[in-house]
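Researcher: Structure prediction, please.
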Amino acid sequence: MIEIKKIDSGFGIGVKLQNANFLLISAKKGYIMCGYLNMETAEKLGDVACIVTGVKTFEDVLKAKVVRVSKSARALGLKEGITGKEALDLLSA
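Model: Predicted structure follows.
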């Protein structure tokens, strides 16, 4: 499933796999991923990425607290404890 999530500063494109608990919302500067994905790989690639856990829907991603951020994401102002929506606002600006 692909869905566009509109937020204050722009939008993100959400991808959800039906047969796995896989969620990702990609924006202009980076992405929010569920715990299914690997932060170590994101770090190796220099990606601007953050992780939220315990999510099953795109709305869950936006409400969840960020539990981990890549170095590149931290440089843009993302940090642990902000909501997925706050992260998406920063990633979309």
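Model: The helical segments are 39-45, 58-63, 71-75, 84-92.
Researcher: Thanks, that helps.
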